[in-house]
Amino acid sequence: MQLAISAIVIHHLYGNTKSDFSISLNEASWYGSILFIIHPFGCFLSGILQERFGKKRCMIFANIPSIIGWTLLYLAHSSFFLYASTLLMGFSIGVGAGAVHAYVGEITEPRFRGAMASLTNTAALSGIMITFILSSLFDWRTVALLSICCPIICILLIIFIPESPIWLIAKGKNEKAEKALCWLRGWVDSDTVKPELFKLLHYNNVSGTIGTQYSNVVTSDNKSLFSKIAQFKEPSVYKPMKLIMIYFFTSYVINLTPGKPFIGKIMTEVGLRDNQSIYLV
Questions:
Q1: CA–CA separation, 166 vs 172, rounded Å?
Q2: Distance CA 243, CA 83 (A)
Q3: Helix or strand or coil: residue 256?
Q4: pLDDT tens-digit series, residues 26-69
Q5: Contacts of 202 (CB under 8 A, 6+ apart)
Q6: 0.85 exceeded by the pTM?
Q7: Which homologous superfamily does the CATH classification assign to the domain defined by 1-161?
Q8: Which stretches make up the Major facilitator superfamily (MFS) profile domain (predicted)?
Q9: Cys staple from 135: which of 8, 149, 179, 215, with CB 3.0 to 4.6 Å?
Q10: What are the DSSP calls for 131-180, one per residue?
């Protein structure tokens, strides 16, 4: 939803003298771009927060800037508030996306991992479509007000899910990791998840982090920064990363994502001046 709202706002405010305030071409360009500028910084910080506080807390934290951003957008009466709102939204998307993908990858069984990972993109596209549907029914301020409910609901739902078992093991909280696995596998008893728990403990020891009470494997000292960087030379690391980088580079170069904020202006220039909200849906 945060990826789509800028298109709605720019459509309603760019050069619109009938609105309570309007924005120029330069202001519209900055408003549509700030989110994508801040996004990478949120992703970078997400990795640090996940390591220190865990995936669950990181996902909860990611929704707080989103709530503030939607509130600022609803109250906006100048371009400054628009900039502040989209900055917070971009930061929220960056922090949240990293935590969500990492959490899904760590909690799901291998046979379900691909399907579960794809649901994140499905949810993002569904949010964009919902935003466009709301924009065809309400003005942009009302859409912003209704959208505040989304991060609030997310926080309330995240509270009830367990922390990633892998993160708990890395922090030496093996009993909590076992309980989390029991919950994630369908509220089963501890005997059912014991084999999977032993595998996670073994992986944890091999990777050089802490958490050892279920295994006799002796952990090594923390790897140096250079040895961690050297892991990127491994084919199992750089080959999938290369594919991912090609995918994201291609999708951004052909303007699929960065062009979204300006889709209303594009439709106006090609002659689609009426019923733009319906065309967006």
A1: 10
A2: 33
A3: coil
A4: 888 899 889 888 988 998 899 889 988 999 999 999 999 999 99
A5: 215, 217
A6: no
A7: MFS general substrate transporter like domains (1.20.1250.20)
A8: 1-281
A9: 8
A10: HHHHHHHS-HHHHHHHHTHHHHHHHHHHTTSPPPHHHHHHTT-HHHHHHH
